Amino acid sequence: MENGGSSRATMAELQEVQITEEKPLLPGQTPEAAKTHSVETPYGSVTFTVYGTPKPKRPAIFTYHDVGLNYKSCFQPLFQFGDMQEIIQNFVRVHVDAPGMEEGAPVFPLGYQYPSLDQLADMIPCILQYLNFSTIIGIGVGAGAYVLSRYALNHPDTVEGLVLINIDPNAKGWMDWAAHKLTGLTSSVAEMILGHLFSQEELSRNSELIQKYRNIVTHAPNLENIELYWNSYNNRRDLNFERGGDITLKCPVMLVVGDQAPHEDAVVECNSKLDPTQTSFLKMADSGGQPQLTQPGKLTEAIKYFLQGMGYMASSCMTRLSRSRTASLTSAASIDGSRSRSRTLSQSSESGTLSSGPPGHTMEVSC
User: In angstroms, rounded to a whole number, what is the distance separating the alpha carbons of residues 326 and 267?
Assistant: First the structure.
C-alpha cells in the first residue's frame, strides 16, 4: 500500500470515517472506537467497520450478515453481550455490510446488476488486502454464512475457523423455486424475508423482538437494495460439499441453528456433508430463527469453546454454566497433546451444566 499507481488509486477510492458505536457500557468500560471504510472491488464498493487493533499472531474475527439486516442489526446483540467482551478484547473485528446494506446507503439505480453471492465472496480479498490481515475467523448468518463458506473454499489458507449460523449450502431446486414463486404472488418481499429470518411460530407470537425486526425490514429505506441481495441469495449455486471429497471446508467449523428454525433441515444436511473431525453442530433450543439475537449468552459460550479448541483464549474465564467443565477440559487437552479441532457440547436444561462427547456429534443447548 506504500508505492505504485494502483496503491494510490486504491487509497483514493477508500473513504474512512471515525465513529463510536452507541451501546451500553459495562462498569469501567470505555467506548470502543470503530472505523468504517468503503473500498472499491471488481464488483462494486463494499463497506466494512473495524473495531480494535490487530493482535500479534491472531486472526481477525470477520462477520457477514444475512438478508434483510446489516452488521448492526444482525450482530450487535451478540457482540454487546457482557461475556462477549472477553472475546472481543482478544481479537480485532471486521464487520462487513453487503453492498447497499450499510446505514444510509443510497438506493441502487433501476437495472443495477447486484453481485452474486460468489462475487460477494470475491470482494473479501480486497478488504483483507487493504487491512493487511492475513487470516480470519468468520462468523456468518444465512446468506453471510454462505458467502464466508464460498470464500473459505476459494482461499482455505486464510481461514482459521468458521461459525456458520443458518447456512443452506444447497442451490434452490425446482420445487423450492415453485414454492418461492407461489409465495411471491401472495406475500411481499419483506414478508418473505421475515419468513427466511424467523420461524412461523415466532412470527405468529409477534414478540417485541419480532415487532422490532418486522419494522426494520418492512420500513427499510433501502428495501429495493435488500430485494437485490435477496434475489442473489435465492440464485445461489450449490456449494457441493462432499464428506471425504475434494470440496470441503478445511478449517474447524461450528454449525449453529435453532431448534425448529426455518433452516434446521439445511444445516443438519450440511453437517452430514462436512468432515466430522473438523465440525461441531450446535442446535439451540428455544432460540428461534436468529440465535445470535435471542440467545447471545449461550452462543457466546459456544464460541469461547470453539476458540479454545483452536488454541486461543486458553485462560479464558468460564461462565457460570461451564465452570464445572474446566477440569475435564484441562485433562482432555493434556491427553490430546495438541489443539483440539472439534468440540461437542450438550447442555442439560435441568442441571445447567456442560458435558463433552465424541467429535462430530451434535451440541444440544437448551434454555
Answer: 29
pLDDT of residue 322: 47
CA 335 to chain centre: 32
Calpha distance 325→320 (Å, rounded): 10
Over residues 165-220, the pLDDT tens digits come to 999 999 976 566 555 555 655 579 999 999 999 999 999 999 999 999 999 999 99
Whether the full predicted model's pTM is greater than 0.85, yes or no, is no
- What pLDDT does 33 receive? 78
**Is the pLDDT score of 17 beyond 80?**
no
Q: Using CA atoms, how far apart are residues 241 and 18, in angstroms rounded to an integer? A: 40
Instruction: Write the CB contacts of 342 (distance below 8 Å, at least 6 apart in sequence).
Output: 252, 276, 277, 278, 279, 280, 309, 359, 360
- pLDDT higher than 60, residue 22: no
CB-neighbour burial class of residue 196 (10 A; exposed 0-12, middle 13-18, buried 19+): buried
pLDDT given for residue 349 in this prediction: 32
Rounded CA separation 5/10 (Å): 9
354-357, strands of its sheet edge to edge = 15-20, 33-41, 44-51, 93-97, 60-64, 136-141, 159-165, 253-258, 279-284, 362-365, 344-347, 354-357
DSSP state of 152: H
Which residue from 67, 56, 149, 134 is spatially nearest to 94, judged by alpha carbons? 134
Return the SS3 of 108: coil
With 90 as the cut, is the pLDDT of residue 127 above it? yes
Stretch 96-112: mean pLDDT = 96
**Residue 25: Cβ-neighbour burial (10 angstroms; 0-12, 13-18, 19+):** exposed
Residue 198 corresponds to which cell in the numbers above?
A: 424467523
> Residues with Cβ < 8 Å from 8, sequence gap 6 or more?
none
Task: Pinpoint the alpha helices (H) of the chain.
Answer: 5-13, 71-79, 85-88, 117-131, 143-154, 174-186, 189-197, 200-205, 208-218, 223-234, 264-273, 291-294, 296-309, 326-336
Question: Do residues 97 and 127 lie in contact, with contact meaning Cβ atoms separated by under 8 Å?
Answer: no
Question: Assign residue 28 a region: left if phi > 0, alpha if psi is -120 to 50, beta otherwise?
Answer: left
